[in-house]
Amino acid sequence: LINAIQVNDLPMVQTLTFIFAVLIVAFNLIADVLYGILDPRIRYD
């Protein structure tokens, strides 16, 4: 990613940024679901 930024490879930077963003959202969703399963005090209204 750093090399792509340095050589102005914009499509590569955009692709990697998008992939990282999708992974962060996916892991946050997984964490929220696991909290609901592991801790019965948490309810989703």
Describe the structure.
The protein has helices at 2-6, 10-38. With 45 residues, it is mainly alpha-helical. The protein has one domain (2-38). The protein is rod-shaped and about 50 Å long.
| Secondary-structure element order, N to C | HH
Q: Give the DSSP E fraction (strand runs of 2 or more residues).
A: under 5%
In terms of structural class, how would the helical and strand content be classed?
Answer: mainly alpha
**Main β-sheet description:** none
Q: Tally of extended strands? A: 0
Evaluate the radius of gyration. Answer: 17 Å
Question: Which regions are unreliable across 5 or more consecutive residues at pLDDT < 50?
Answer: none
How many angstroms separate the termini? 40 Å
The residue fraction in helices comes out at over 70%
The coarse silhouette is: rod-shaped
Number of helices: 2
Number of domains: 1
Mean pLDDT: 89
